[in-house]
Design goal:
The protein has about 290 residues and is α+β, with helices and mostly antiparallel strands. The protein has 6 helices and 15 strands.
C-alpha cells in the first residue's frame, strides 16, 4: 500500500514528529514548505534523521552528526528513516541513519549521542561586540522590497521564504553584492518553538537551522553579485557539533567560507545565543554551478 503524502507542517515541532513503522524504522508525517520547486530543504532531512536516531536512545543527548546528501528529496513524498544501532556504550551511543524515498537513498548519516557528564571544560570564543542586535535590523522581506537591492531582489526572495524561521541579516550587502567576502552574520529565530523545549527538540532545531543561508556563503567571496543568473546550489554534506541545548529567542548564525575551488566551496559556521555562548558548530561542502 502506498504511504500517504506528508502534510504541510504546522510548526517546527510537527516537522520532527515521526511515525514508527517498525523496529528502527520511522516515517515523516509532515514536510516543510515547498519553496524550491518540490526539492526538499536539507535541514528537514537532517532534523528528521536526527529525531529518528534520538528516538532509539534513552538518557543521552546529541553530540554530533555527519551526513552525505546523495539525491534531492521530493517535499511532497514521505521519507523513511532506517536507524541502525552501531554502538551503545555507557557514555556514548552511535547510530547510522539512512533516509529513503521511493526506494532510493537520499542521505546516509552517522550521529553520536552522549550522557550528560560534568567535566573540566567551560570556555568559548567571544562574541564580536560590534555586531548589532536583531532589533535594529531589517528582515528579508524588507530588504527584498528595498529599491536599493532591486538588482538582487530575486536572490533576496529565494533566501526569505522559510516558513518557521525569522531572519535578519547583519550585512545584506556582504551576502548579495559582489566580492563582499569575510564572515556573514544572520540573526535567526523560530517563534513557534519556545525556549523551554527539551534538549532533543532543540538539537533537531539546530540541525535544521544550520542549513539555512550557509550554502550561499561561498558565492559571497566571488567577484560577482547575486544578480542576473543565480547559481545552482546544492549541499554535498552536512556536519554539526552540538554544544548547548537551550537558547531564548534570537540566535546569531556566523558563517564563513575558508576555501573554494572550481565548483566546490567549503562553508562553516556557528550558532550562538544572545549571550555569546556557542550552541552548535556546522560545516558543509557546497556545489555551485552557473545555470
Amino acid at each position: 500500500m502506498t504511504a500517504p503524502a506528508p502534510a504541510q507542517a504546522e510548526d517546527f515541532a510537527s516537522i520532527i514528529r515521526l511515525e514508527q513503522t517498525g523496529p528502527g524504522c520511522f516515517r515523516n508525517l509532515y514536510s516543510d514548505l515547498d519553496f524550491q520547486g518540490g526539492h526538499m530543504f536539507g535541514g528537514q532531512l537532517l532534523a528528521q534523521g536526527l529525531a529518528a536516531a534520538l528516538a532509539t536512545v534513552e538518557g543521552k543527548r546529541a553530540k554530533s552528526l555527519h551526513a552525505y546528501y546523495l539525491r534531492r528529496g521530493d517535499v511532497r513524498q514521505p521519507v523513511d528513516y532506517h536507524v541502525e544501532i552501531v554502538r551503545d556504550g555507557r557514555g556514548f551511543s552511535t547510530r547510522r541513519v539512512r533516509a529513503v524515498q521511493g526506494g532510493k537513498a537520499l542521505f546516509e548519516m552517522l550521529c553520536s549521542m552522549s550522557a550528560p557528564e560534568q567535566g573540566v571544560l567551560d570556555h568559548r570564543d567571544a562574541l564580536d561586540a560590534a555586531i548589532p542586535g536583531p532589533d535594529s535590523l531589517r528582515d528579508m522581506a524588507d530588504i527584498a522590497a528595498d529599491p536599493a537591492f532591486a538588482d538582487c531582489r530575486e536572490a533576496a526572495l529565494r533566501l526569505s521564504p522559510m516558513q518557521f524561521v525569522e531572519a535578519r541579516p547583519v550585512d545584506p550587502e556582504r551576502l548579495l553584492r559582489a566580492g563582499g567576502g569575510g564572515p556573514a552574520h544572520v540573526w535567526v529565530r523560530v517563534p513557534s518553538l519556545g525556549a523551554d523545549c527539551d534538549a532533543d527538540t532543540f538539537a533537531c532545531l539546530l540541525a535544521y537551522l544550520q542549513d539555512y543561508w550557509i550554502a550561499i556563503v561561498p558565492w559571497a567571496y566571488q567577484p560577482r553579485a547575486l544578480t542576473g543568473v543565480i547559481p545552482q546550489v546544492a549541499s554535498l554534506d552536512g556536519n554539526v557539533w552540538f554544544h548547548r541545548y537551550a537558547a531564548d529567542g534570537w540566535m546569531l548564525y556566523e558563517m564563513t567560507s575558508p576555501a573554494g575551488l572550481d565548483t566546490v566551496g567549503l562553508a562553516s559556521g556557528r550558532l550562538l545565543d544572545q549571550e555569546g555562548r556557542v550552541l552548535a558548530t556546522a560545516a558543509q561542502e557546497v556545489l555551485l554551478r552557473d545555470l
